[in-house]
């Protein structure tokens, strides 16, 4: 094998064509609403981790489970990167009419890019939180919230943090 690029081979690199059954595809017996996506801090040093919280509310009539998914998108990068990357997920049971506040950590190493070695770069990033991938079209409605954060400092090797 001579071509090691992942272009066109995984959901992260399909370009404009979406996979038939993307990660998180499926139906639910109830409906969920996402709200209050908070990224802390909104501006962080290049080696720091990001804290994320989001509220998931079961707005339907049935107790059910939801797989909450977090995706990261680089707004600019010195090397080619995926459209977005899954950085966290959690299956959560929520009773009908109830809500759950979820907390996640997005580690600095999850923002690393490959440029002859793993590197962390400053810049702007978008984090998505929801029950599906960003922009996914499904029969069952599911919200995907988004918020941006910035990374400051100078680019450095991941092992230098």
TrEMBL record:
Annotated ranges, domain Fibronectin type III-like:
66-133
Task: Provide the alphabetized UniProt keywords.
Answer: Hydrolase
Q: Answer whether the UniProt record assigns the keyword Hydrolase to this protein.
A: yes
InterPro entries cross-referenced by the UniProt entry: Cellulose_deg_GH3, Fn3-like, Glyco_hydro_3_C_sf, Ig-like_fold
Q: What class of enzyme is it?
A: hydrolase
Q: Which reaction does it catalyse?
A: Hydrolysis of terminal, non-reducing beta-D-glucosyl residues with release of beta-D-glucose
A single Gene Ontology molecular function, please? beta-glucosidase activity
Q: Mind listing the GO biological process terms from this record?
A: carbohydrate metabolic process
Q: Which Gene3D superfamilies match?
A: Glycoside hydrolase family 3 C-terminal domain, Immunoglobulins
EC annotation from Swiss-Prot or TrEMBL = 3.2.1.21
Tell me where on the tree of life, at the top rank, the source sits: Eukaryota
Asked whether the UniProt record includes Hydrolase among its keywords, one would answer yes
Per the record, the coiled-coil ranges are none
The entry assigns this protein to a family as follows: Belongs to the glycosyl hydrolase 3 family.
Q: What is this protein called?
A: beta-glucosidase
